[in-house]
Design goal:
374 residues; alpha+beta; Deoxyribonuclease I, Chain A; 11 strands; flat; endonuclease activity
């Protein structure tokens, strides 16, 4: 599911020209939810909302039901510390009213570059931002916050958006959860011993590792399978047996099957925790304490931090995805490409060689007693 929320602290919406500008920008940005904060307007009329949203039926919208419940709160933070304490107490009280996933957006009067006074002013601070609950973070793993261009206000509109990350090709990575599978290490040993490759030792090692990577990848796809698919299949089978047993006694075979499915679900849960722990890189926290949710949140946070939204090349800031890819590729190609240049060459044709007896003496086994004697 994709969602786009814009929060904008903007002054002067009493003016028709500013409302027209907001309408044009909303047509360009196309948000699902728009929160406007204008402290000078006491009463908002439906006509003002219609002028900015774009049509006479602005009060109604038809959305496809997806059973996703969430809450949004627009905040205009006070300037004094005592009033801020009251604000946070009110937000805490609101949190106690509902358990749904929650997003808060607005002017918190914090710090770092979404507000500036005038075009040439050196005063700037980030006072507009979004905060969201950990449950929201679990639902939207690719969420991002963006400060949109400043147009008609000292404040930049802020955008909360998801579902726009581009995933590149997946590279092979050894999963620690495979080690929990019975017989996996024996398979690796068997595969390794069956490889027959000739050449120098380093060549043989590299080729064996390449063959092993292919065998593990095939085994993971054909035998081990995706954890989510295995879990869903096991749950469906378990539910089918329980439904069939509602009107009759459970057979011995069904009891054994139920026990087997529950054991499989337990193994899948352990494997998921190991996998998420590896992705989160939280090696200081032990597995087996039901920390899967925590590992997921840390891994998602790392993913957001590693995502490249902008790239500065020289004095230019690039935001286009294709240009970012091209610039990164050019950088590393130039980094590992050497210009042609003259080099000294050496020939070893005239060097004298050691005798066969000297070679054998150099290669003989190390004897500790002779070492101490000599």
């Amino acid at each position: 599911m994709k969602i786009k929320v814009i929060n904008w602290n903007i002054r002067g919406l009493n003016e028709a020209e500013k409302r027209s500008t907001v309408k044009a920008l909303m047509g360009k940005w196309k948000p699902d939810v728009l929160c406007l904060q204008e402290t000078k307007i006491v009463d908002w009329s439906s006509s003002m909302i219609q002028q900015m949203w774009g049509n006479r039926w602005a009060n109604w919208a038809e959305l496809k039901a997806c059973e996703f419940r969430w809450c949004y709160t627009g905040v205009y933070g006070p300037h004094t510390n005592p009033d801020r304490e009251v604000l946070w107490l009110e937000l805490a009280a609101l949190r106690g009213i509902w358990d749904e996933q929650w997003v808060i957006g607005g002017d918190f009067n914090g710090a770092f570059y979404t507000w500036s006074r005038g075009e040439d002013s050196i005063q700037a601070s980030r006072i507009d931002r979004f905060l969201f609950s950990s449950e929201w973070n679990d639902t939207f793993k690719d969420i991002k916050q963006i400060a949109l261009p400043k147009v008609t206000s000292d404040h930049r509109p802020i955008l909360l958006e998801n579902g726009d990350w581009e995933v590149g090709p997946f590279y092979f990575k050894f999963e620690n959860m495979w080690l929990q599978e019975v017989g996996f290490l024996d398979k690796i040993k068997e595969w390794w011993q069956n490889y027959s490759i000739e050449g120098t030792p380093d060549f043989v090692l590299s080729q064996k590792l390449r063959c092993l990577k292919k065998d593990i990848t095939d085994w993971n796809r054909e035998t081990y399978g995706k954890l989510e698919t295995r879990k869903s299949k096991a749950l469906d089978e378990l539910m089918a047996i329980e439904q069939a047993s509602e009107n009759r006694l459970t057979t011995q075979a069904e009891k054994e099957k139920i026990l087997s499915l529950k054991m499989e679900l337990l193994q899948i849960a352990k494997a998921e925790e190991v996998s998420w722990r590896q992705k989160s890189r939280c090696l200081w926290l032990k597995e087996g304490d039901r920390n899967t949710k925590y590992f997921q949140r840390v891994a998602n946070s790392c993913r957001r931090n590693n995502h490249i939204k902008k790239l500065m090349v020289g004095d230019e800031i690039i935001e286009d995805k294709d240009q970012i890819k091209s610039k990164i590729l050019d950088f590393y190609q130039n980094l590992y490409t050497e210009n042609e240049q003259w080099r000294l060459t050496a020939t070893f044709e005239d060097l004298t060689c050691i005798s066969l007896e000297e070679k054998e003496w150099l290669e003989k086994a190390f004897e500790e007693d002779k070492f101490f004697k000599e």
